[in-house]
Design brief:
Elements lengths: L12 H14 L5 E3 L8 E18 L2 E13 L5 H4 L19 E12 L5 E6 L9 E3 L21 H11 L11 H7 L10
Antiparallel strand pairs: 1-2, 1-6, 2-3, 3-4, 4-5
Length: about 200
């Protein structure tokens, strides 16, 4: 066990291709990819994905295989202060900022898929070894798990109602600068998490 061993932590290549094709290709919904096949964790949201057949189908030792390339444009959540601190020139009073937009991070993987006689995908491997694929594909739905007071279970100082309203207001197309009234929010849900008794 180590921080970044490059060991055999990659998810199954066939499962990844099928999940990506169905979730992104057919459902047109994003997902999160944990890109490092080790105990080093880094999740990115999928902005776009493209899969290409590189070779095949071809026969090897009585099996049919196809080589595919998977190219993903992922969204970085790591920004410098300068990336987010760009005043909007249409608001000379300095109350608005330009939208950050997509900060693309490109990842590519090569895989070989095994097919049954009907051409259905029944297995796969990452070219170059098991460590050459992503670790995990996650399909988040709904809201995070919250305490009865509306705070994130994993971090009792993050109140989800405040985070949701900040996100909604930050993308608001209204002409006036958006304002978040914490008094109104705190009247409904306590804005200080309960503190443990000594």
């Amino acid at each position: 066990i180590a921080y970044d061993t490059g060991a055999i932590c990659s998810m199954n290549a066939a499962s990844f291709v099928l999940a990506l094709a169905n979730r992104v290709g057919i459902d047109r919904r994003s997902a999160l990819i944990q890109v490092h096949p080790s105990t080093r964790w880094k999740y990115y949201a999928i902005a776009s994905a493209r899969m290409r057949v590189q070779r095949g189908p071809y026969a090897v030792e009585g099996a049919r295989r196809v080589d595919v390339a998977i190219d993903c444009t992922l969204s970085s959540t790591v920004l410098s202060y300068a990336d987010a601190n760009r005043p909007d020139p249409s608001a000379p009073d300095g109350t608005r900022f330009e939208k950050v937009g997509l900060r693309p991070v490109l990842f590519s993987w090569l895989a070989t898929l095994e097919l049954d006689p009907d051409g259905s995908i029944i297995g796969g491997r990452w070219d170059g070894g098991l460590e050459n694929g992503p670790n995990q594909l996650v399909f988040p739905d709904g809201e995070p798990e919250l305490t009865p007071h509306g705070f994130a279970v994993d971090n009792p100082f993050l109140q989800f109602a405040v985070i949701r309203q900040l996100a909604e207001l930050s993308s608001s197309p209204a002409d006036a600068p958006p304002r978040l009234d914490l008094h109104d929010l705190c009247a409904k849900v306590p804005c200080s998490p309960p503190r443990p008794l000594p």
